[in-house]
Amino acid sequence: MAIEDILSSTEFAANTTVGEECPSQLPTVVQYLNGLDTILTVIIGITIALSLVTFVICGKNISQVLRHTPKRFKTKTIILLSIYPTVTALAMVSVLVPKSYFVCDTVSHIYFMICAYIFYSLVMAYVGGEDGFIKSSDTETFNVRTPPCCCCVPFLKRSPVTKNSLLFTRLLILQLPIIQSILFFGLNIVFLEDLDNFNRIILYFVPFIAGSILLGVWGLNILVRMIAPLYEEFKIMGKYVVLQAVLILCKIQPVVIMVIVTYVTPRCDFPLVLQVQKNAVFQLCLCGEMVFLSLWAFQLYKTPSNTRQLLAKSEST
């Protein structure tokens, strides 16, 4: 996670200068809605429309899961599929109430971290649990030389899967929701109590946030590269990519949009300050991307034709 990404969460309350000094105070909802121009109104309308599309797709996905997915996979699968309408709903709130950006960003961030561990649990359920996978994997399939830490441990070779190796992988992923929740909970308290102090201490949180995410992604990559080649019919790699894309889009994309809005269409009209414009464009893009990811997930989790095969293989292990 880039430093600019963390700082983008607080840009609404920061001073911004584009040629001339821009107002630093964010508008209230009434001021914001009264000051809307045609472009921002269209963006809000399209954002709401895309959100509704995502909700419909998610409803179909969940309906499909309830009908065709084995019982022990249902809850975990629904939680994973719900990340797309959750992100979309928070994006819609954020574009309507700009001051809520940091809170909405925190909720979507923590939900993703929870989904990361749910993904681990679902994959383990696919292969019959940890004990079942250990019994079925008689080759040296455990490999820690995966991104983003592949260069840090070049001396470690492949090894057989053991209880300890799976525990190591699980802990790497489990720390994500725990560490990230603690860090962002503390940041939200400081943000609400003392914005100036928040702007001073945010940089000190960046190494801990980034380090935790890197360790979690490392654990997920170990998991996927260990199991996906042996169980291709579960489409584990595709499901991992469509989940990880949420994190990439939510954390990398704001930096790009910030640059575009700042240098291509700079404006300082209160209440449509630069940060409000950047947020509106970002949330619009995010809602459109959630529609695409929801459709992709629909295809990946659409398994009525091979559900019996997957269930039989899982039970046989």
From TrEMBL:
State a single Pfam family of this protein. Solute_trans_a
> Per its UniProt entry, which superkingdom is the organism in?
Eukaryota
Asked if the Swiss-Prot or TrEMBL record annotates the protein with the keyword Transmembrane, the reply is yes
Q: What is its main location?
A: membrane
Subcellular location(s): the record lists:
Membrane
The membrane topology of this protein is:
Multi-pass membrane protein
Say yes or no: keyword Transmembrane helix present: yes
What are the TM regions of this chain, as residue ranges? 39-58, 78-97, 109-127, 167-189, 201-228, 240-261, 281-301
Q: Name one GO cellular component term.
A: membrane
Q: Which UniProt keywords apply?
A: Membrane, Transmembrane, Transmembrane helix
State what protein this is by name: Organic solute transporter alpha-like protein
Q: Which organism is it from?
A: Culex quinquefasciatus
Lineage, highest ranks first: Eukaryota, Metazoa, Ecdysozoa, Arthropoda, Hexapoda
Q: Which gene encodes it?
A: 6035008
